[in-house]
Amino acid sequence: MIPFYDADAVHAALDYPSLVAALRDAFAMAAIEAPVRTAYEVGTPSAPGRLLAMPAWRRGEALGVKLVNVFPRNADRGLGAVHAVYVLFDGTTGAPRALIDGEALTNRRTAAASALASTYLSRADSGVLTLVGTGRLAPELALAHAAVRPIRRVLVWGRSIDKAQTVAARLCRRGLSAERTSDLPAAVAAADIVSCATVSSEPLVLGHQVRPGTHIDLVGAFTPAMRESDDAVILASRVYVDTYAGALAEAGDLIQPIAAGIWSEDRVCGDLRELCTRTRCGRAGDDEVTLFKSVGAALEDLVAATLVLERGRGSELPA
């Protein structure tokens, strides 16, 4: 019998301190192989969609693959934009070991990766977090950042005031002081950390709004045509990525200024592996603006899935 771990089981197994620590070890050890994900356009003009396949393996121990469907217009249907499943296999025999809710796994590991980057890139006294976006990932980002920094106030902005209020209320129930805001420029200017999780194709965070010392966490905008920051933000920031291969192939926030000839890939200051091994330095001063661009890495999925199997309680599915 193959155990299935639903969203509740995933969230229960993956507390942020443990997951951040596990990701730090995995990036530092570099024992997991994870090729760049493959992407396929599978939607229609009225309902655009992408299918992503994300395999990763630790030889002799574990291997897994996540299948992800991303349909950005699902909000119009009252659905999340991302739907996914993760299959974990034994690394010695190839036999399936677990089926895991992929959306919960993705949201949890994505937020944990941002928190991991924040431990190197945000100021240690960061207390004000601005969330840009109101999808299912948004509250996870706030909880993850609050696990590594003394967040005392969360400002939530979204195109829908009602959805921003819903996210703020959810965070309040989780013990954070959160409020919705309709003034994005003011919220960016007030923030120590700005965390964006949107599918925007137009910049939302603008360089003239960002004050010295801010850390900018960009985890949405996962195609070359999307972006959450303008050129001025990129030019003013020390830029870091989750992985070079993924970010430089998919992140519109970086690809677009590179294509315009105003920025270059050699200005990336490091990736998560280099930060975790201390081969590249993180924040060097309180007045620096730092930026972390994440597009997601299959390594993170395998680490999280392994933890779920070790610590979670699943239900049984027929083999």
From TrEMBL:
One of its GO terms (cellular component) is cytoplasm. GO terms for biological process: carboxylic acid metabolic process. It comes from the Bacteria. It holds the Pfam family OCD_Mu_crystall. GO terms for molecular function: oxidoreductase activity. InterPro entries: NAD(P)-bd_dom_sf, ODC_Mu_crystall, ODC_N. Belongs to the ornithine cyclodeaminase/mu-crystallin family. PANTHER family: KETIMINE REDUCTASE MU-CRYSTALLIN. This is Ornithine cyclodeaminase family protein. It comes from Methylobacterium planeticum.
